Amino acid sequence: MKFLLVFDFDHTIIDENSDTWIVKCAPEKKLPNGLRNSYQPGHWTEYMGRVFVYLGDNGVKEDEMKRTMTAIPFTAGMIDLLGFIGENKELFDCIIVSDSNTVFIDWILKAADFHKVFDEVFTNPAAFSSTGYLTVQHFHAHHCAKCPKNLCKRKVLKEFLDKQLERGVNYTQLVYIGDGGNDLCPVMFLKKNDIAMPRQGYTLEKKISQLAQSLSPVQCSVLVWSSAIDIMSYLKLLIKE
């Protein structure tokens, strides 16, 4: 009996978007209009690359970025939930699949001492260059028309499950916890016994209910959450069964 918990990061584990939060480091805490308007749909990673160049050009250093990022609040109840998962690691494997980046997620999880809760983090690789600029790359290449160019979460999930099967790990149930439009693709991959947990009032919940209205509902069960305590209550029921 082992369960796989799949978490998104922005607006799920943390109560903000890490990529837009970093703008607090910019002069006057905002970006110039030209840069802000340079975003093209599906090319968020490239846009963030330009944001990091702008921050570097304005003398924003790694330690300032780190101080800013580790001040992001966790979502309501999330600290309790992650503590609970950490105490029950023999029952739960836990991964993050996120369109943020390795540097931000690493900083935030380590500062709160939650990095040990997660078995793997799948996100865009980032690093500081020799000149002190943060650089970010695409997580992978894929052929999914529904997803942003740099990341198809369904592909990540499928490859992870295949690798686990090779190691002899087969999960009783998958629990997918997210909020965004890019979480729909992996949710549609879930089976009847699995459960999707979209955050109340966010894009993923709306997209799942649109599918139900158009009579092509997702296969898995759906349980909406507003506080991570809702998720913890569900997990407690799971392990009692």
Automatic annotation (TrEMBL):
Chain positions recorded as substrate binding sites: D19, D99
Keywords carried by this UniProt record: Hydrolase, Magnesium, Metal-binding
Tell me which residues this entry annotates as catalytic.
D8, D10
By its UniProt entry, which SUPFAM superfamilies does this protein fall under?
Answer: HAD-like
Q: Does the keyword Ribonucleoprotein apply?
A: no
Give the required cofactors: Mg(2+)
Record flagged with keyword Hydrolase: yes
Give the Gene Ontology MF terms in alphabetical order: metal ion binding; phosphatase activity
**Annotated binding of Mg(2+), by residue:** D8, D10, D179
Report the Pfam families cross-referenced here: Put_Phosphatase (PF06888)
Checking NCBIfam families in the record gives: DKMTPPase-SF (TIGR01489), HAD-SF-IB (TIGR01488)
Xref: PANTHER family: PHOSPHATASE, ORPHAN 1, 2, PYRIDOXAL PHOSPHATE PHOSPHATASE PHOSPHO2
Q: Which family does it belong to?
A: Belongs to the HAD-like hydrolase superfamily. PHOSPHO family.
Tell me what this protein is called. PHOP2 phosphatase
What gene name is given for the protein in this entry? Phospho2
